[in-house]
Each structure stands twice: as C-alpha cells, then as structure tokens.
Amino acid sequence: MPAGESRRLTGGRLVLATHNPGKVREIQDLLAPFNLKITAAGTLGLPEPEETGATFTENAVLKARAAASGSGTPTLADDSGLVVDALGGDPGIYSARWAGPSKDFGAAMQKVEEALRTRGATDRRAHFTAALALAWPDGHVETFVGRIDGSLVWPPRGTRGFGYDPMFVPNGYSETFGELDPSLKHSISHRADAFRQLVDQCLARART
Q: Residue 88's domain spans which residues?
C-alpha cells in the first residue's frame, strides 16, 4: 500500500483480544454496522499476555499481536484506563490491576477515593483514555487513541457501564457513565473517539 495509507479490514472474522465482558459488549455495539464475524479471545481460549508496555498503546499492541498470532485472524485490542490528575496520572495503565485478581472495581473505585482523601486533593479532574490496536497475523498493526475528560464523584452512581464508570462524570453532563444510557455513552466515550478514527482509516469500506 502507499506510504502513510492505513490497511483496510473489509469484512470477515475479527477477534476481540479481551476477556472483559463489559468491553466485549461495548465493542460489539460499536462494530455492529460492519460486516464482521466477531469472536472474543476468551471464547477461543487464548491467554491474556502480560501487559509490560509503558503506555496504553504499547499494551494494546501487545494484546492484539498475541491474539492475532494465536488465532491466525485479524484482532482488535483495547487498552484503556482512568487517569486522575491529582494522583499523578494513576491508576492509568494499571487501572485493571487496581481492581485486583478478582476484578473488583468497587474496591478499585474505593482505592481511588481513598488516595484522593489521603492527599487532601480537591482537584477531582480525570479523563479516560482508550488505545485501540488492530493487528493482522503477519504482524501489521494500526493504532488509534481516544480520550474523554470529566471529573470524579463519590459515592459511585449507577449500575450501567463497567469499571470506573460509576464515579466518572464526563464534562458537559450531570450523570456518571454508570447512569448514562449506553447508546449515549457509546457515542461520546473515549472508546468511541478511538473507534471513529478506526472507522475512518480502516473500516470505511466494510459497511454493509
């Protein structure tokens, strides 16, 4: 392909390199308009690689390449997290690890709140970042990064969404990601921002 041109994915099978049911549902919704047969890595029994990258993008690439190699199928990976200004960017790329082996995000949100209180922080600004990596079995990768800014509330509100959603209020809204209608959240989220870039550069020819 010409230099600087992104590779296109024009239908067929796509593996989602995540074992997080919430992410699977959200990504499936975002990919619904495209002619893709989607399978989650967990369904295929593919292991989760160790996330040794220093950035969201590096970790997304690690996961996408591992699943693409293991499945022999183009793979989309997401690495995302909550970045809190007053905590120096934590939990950041360690957002999932703050939830522990049991993926208890109620405990993770409590940990964020306790860290803010310990520091006496009044600045509750935060943002979500999502990095997407689309990898092919031959090793080619396309990457995209999205972001949404907002602030943190306590106690958490809402049972929709997943992860840190119930304590995050996006700028311009009064409800948390845990309270917003999923279709609205999907249209404004950090993941949606990254997906718009993915669609523009890699999926535009895959519309049915």
A: 12-203
142 within some domain: yes
Tell me, yes or no, if 90 is annotated catalytic: no
Residue 81, H or E segment:
strand 75-84
CATH number at residue 118: 3.90.950.10
- pLDDT on residue 90: 98
Backbone phi and psi for residue 75, each to the nearest 5 degrees, phi listed first? -135, 140
* pLDDT score for 206: 40
Count Cβ atoms below 10 Å from residue 76 Cβ, excluding itself: 27
Instruction: State the 10-residue block means of pLDDT for the chain, 208 residues long.
Output: 70 86 81 86 86 95 95 94 98 95 95 97 97 96 97 96 95 97 91 91 59
User: What's the chain's length in residues?
Assistant: 208
Q: Which of the residues 29, 78, 79, 104 is marked catalytic?
A: 79
Q: Count CA atoms closer than 13 A to 113's CA, side-chain side.
A: 15
Burial-class residue 85 by CB neighbours within 10 Å (0-12, 13-18, 19+). middle
